[in-house]
Amino acid sequence: MYLSTVSRPATDPPTGGRPRRRLAGVGGTVLALGTVSLITDVSAEMVTAVLPLYLVLGLNLSPLAFGVLDGVYTGATAVLRVVGGFVADRFRRRKLVAGAGYALSAVAKLGLLLAGRSVPAIGAVLAVDRLGKGIRTAPRDALITLATPPDALGRAFGVHRAMDGVGAFLGPLVAFAVLLAVGPNYDAVFVASFCVAALAVVVLVLFVRERPAPVGPAGGADERRVTVREAAGLLRDRPARRLVLAAALLGLATIGDGFVYLLLQRREDVGLRWFPLLAVGTSLAYLLLAGPLGALADRIGRLPVVVGGYVALGGTYLLLAGPVHGWPLLVLTLALYGLFYAATDGVLIALAGPVLPARVRTTGIALVQTGQALAYLVSSVLFGLAWQVWGPRAAGGVAALAVAVALLVSVFLLAPLTRRSSR
């Protein structure tokens, strides 16, 4: 087991000789990062909640064109996740790299104002925003894994993702309030989003503490710098390859949030002003379930929880392709979609963390996330094409089938890692 030669404290270092109080069994580092994610998600979800309407109804993009932009929004800069992860591991500056990513995403919100109605410019700005997310995500998650004992990783990620979910819940509400106050003025949403994102960077700088470097076998700090060869060696490691391949397959079976909400809006004729509130339903389910499901993953195993999450995703796509209408469709779809995120978002990384060597854990997490993001880019384009050629219901049915196939293969790949990740 990779962690057998790595010794680290189970909790945040004591202050003044007394243990730091913790909420829900997690340390101050997790809570501080959760606060940063909460504020950042308010900013991000303000934009995400109005972006599908802005692009499809405001700029009259086709489903295929929206799929390309949606894929760019998440996957186009995915390779830079690995670069960010490697830099954080090599220089042991995970907080600094994560902070640069948060700052870049904040600046991108102002870029939407300058892009105007130019689709190429909007695509470029969205790519910059995702570049920031790509740089920050792996260092942030590595900070969590290094500040938490392996047997509590599910709870730690659950608490972090629950706080993140609070931001995702509030973001669309803030966007709705802005649109209610000023009318269909998307620029006002973008400016407010930038201000909130800037606050998150301030909180990160002031309150997040980075753990010391991992301790070597002899008891002293391991001063060796991570090399490119050492990082590349992860791809020769069988457990790491299984993680990356499974993540890519699951990403290939996942379509974007924007597509889900557009399908609901078209089927139920949801008013444009009320559209941002669809994301609120998903976020509420996520917020309520992320913590409990993270704790459940620590108790019964992370893989069963991840499997349950993707079953919920397949059910979401089937509902969108099926005969159900009215409020039952809205409630069931948003609840299942929130359950999917709560069961998979942090739990998959909690499964992966203990399997990866501590010295290159940030790089390993970045590889897993890159596999998902690149696959997501492909899936968004393919779903947009399927919608345009076959229609939305047929495309939803194909998406549900893809989830079933990807899940079966992924269980085969991840099952041998379950015992390792749960130790």
TrEMBL record:
Residues covered by region (Disordered): 1-20
Main location group: membrane
Subcellular compartments: Cell membrane
The keyword Transmembrane helix appears for this protein: yes
Compositional bias segments (type: Low complexity): 8-17
Protein keywords: Membrane, Transmembrane, Transmembrane helix
Transmembrane segments: 23-44, 64-88, 165-182, 188-208, 243-262, 274-296, 303-321, 327-352, 373-390, 396-417
One Pfam match: MFS_1
Recorded topology in the membrane: Multi-pass membrane protein
Span of domain Major facilitator superfamily (MFS) profile: 29-418
PANTHER family, per database record: C-METHYLTRANSFERASE, MAJOR FACILITATOR SUPERFAMILY TRANSPORTER
Descriptive protein name: MFS transporter
Species of the source: Micromonospora maritima
